[in-house]
Amino acid sequence: MRERHRYLFIRILEACNADCFMCEFALSRDTYRFSVEDFEELLPKARAAGVRYVRFTGGEPLMHRDVVELVRTGAAAGMRMSLITNGMLLPRLVGRLAGAGLAQVIVSLDGASAATHDVYRRSPGMFDNGLQGLRAAAELGVLPRVNTVVGPHNYAEVPRLQQVLTDAGAQQWELSALKLDRSITYPDPGHVRQVCDPVYDADPRSLLVPLGKRFYGDTPQEQERYFARSVTPRASRPLCHVVDDVLYVDGRLGRVYACSCLPHRDGGDGPAGGAPLRENGTVVLDTPVFRAHADFFRERGPQLCAGCSTTAAGYSDDVARLGAVPPWRY
User: With contact defined as beta carbons under 8 Å apart, do 135 and 143 qualify?
Assistant: First the structure.
């Protein structure tokens, strides 16, 4: 019997109403939708595979016309339901989502005010709507979390954003390093540490402290890789434990991966490319092909992954050190 429950991530669409400069789905009008029927077919296989936590991703999940019913379907099956959103539509939908059984909502906020966040996301009104939706979620008993993409453009705002999120009642926060198809240069890495180290070292009784590793690395070796080569902190050697606990489904591509970061990798040949979601028209999970894929990254991820997230890296290290991780730490 598994000691830890697994997380199922599902990209339910690629369409998005935001124009974020760092995102491949900016203003996408792609028509694919993961349907309620798809989810109903997947759920028994996911439960049999040890899944108890489900997170919808996109694109922008709140643009899916059936997103409330998708949440309701998962909650009725005993899953703890989560989704990540840019927040623009959250005030309009948060009551229905909470009523359907949403357990956690993750809002993307990259600036400490509308004056900066809406510029970074090129979407007027997004900051105010996201913060309003986050507060409403907390009042409705939905765990409020924020994800922040951090780069040279906004790292100096992180301390102010920390206070804004603390005041708003956010309970979890991830600082994710900006990832682009080129090296990312910080003129003064020492200043990044000077500004951001106190954010991570803050007293959690008075300020919201980010999850996982520092986005620029916890160790001198990690920080050298990040500032010199834009390699984000990853699971510590010898093994990555995330792949034991995660299933990431891309319904449009019909693929399943062992980490939410892996679908964004270049290439995809051999075991690095995930596994088919269907065999002979039937949904399958934990197949020999998938296990070979997971084994590949369990053993080689700590050496070769260049785009890990701070929460994935921290999750793996916590499993290695403690054997268990509290819910929603990924």
Answer: no
